[in-house]
Design goal:
With 176 residues, the protein is of the alpha/beta class. It has one domain: Rossmann fold (3-Layer(aba) Sandwich), CATH 3.40.50. It has 7 helices and 7 strands. It has a 7-stranded parallel sheet with strand order 4-3-2-1-5-6-7, sandwiched between helices. Helix 1 links the parallel strand 1 and strand 2. The chain is globular, with a radius of gyration of 15 Å.
């Protein structure tokens, strides 16, 4: 499976990286391909090294203004002209989406992916690895949007949340 992962490209605390690296190990050991933002920096770089170290493949999708931070040694590295094209490639290349901790870029990417799913433009599973309750606020907001009638489909059909790295892969499979 090609698994698109959105996450931070900056250095973050070990309490966030530990579960992400366990997920990377499981992804690679499962023979999956990581499709990610292509960066060698921070959590993105750690994730790529973890997947590669466990035997997985790497497809990076970077953008021209960040190409100087691209991960060397990826199986494939795509350079897009802008962030919109990058998001399109990230969605198009993945069979499923996983969201790890991240900042504004991650939030931008995942809200667009959720919006596209809401409108039926894709039916790919989206799973948040909700480390340390990082996405509790987003999860509550999605539930409120659902309850208050702002979503045409139940929020539980848009995305799943788990704090368990092993459960992420289970939730990505049709039987999961």
């Amino acid at each position: 499976m090609n698994i698109t992962v959105f996450c931070a490209a900056n250095e973050i605390e070990e309490r966030y990286t530990r579960p992400a690296l366990e997920f990377a190990r499981l992804l690679g050991a499962g023979g999956h391909t990581l499709v990610w933002g292509g960066s060698d920096s921070g959590l993105m770089g750690d994730l790529a090294r973890g997947v590669r170290g466990a035997g997985g493949k790497l497809v990076g999708i970077t953008v021209e203004f960040l190409a100087h931070k691209a991960f060397e040694g990826a199986d494939e590295m795509v350079v897009t002209p802008n962030l919109g094209a990058r998001k399109g490639q990230l969605l198009g290349r993945g069979d499923a989406i996983v969201v790890l901790v991240g900042g504004m870029g991650t939030l931008d990417e995942v809200t667009e992916i959720l919006e596209l799913k809401k409108h039926g433009h894709h039916a790919k599973p989206i799973v948040f690895l909700d480390t340390e309750g990082f996405y509790d606020g987003l999860r509550a907001q999605l539930r409120r949007m659902d309850v208050d009638g702002f979503l045409p489909i139940p929020s539980a059909q848009l995305a799943a949340f788990t704090s368990d790295p092993a459960e992420v892969l289970d939730l990505l499979t049709p039987a999961g």
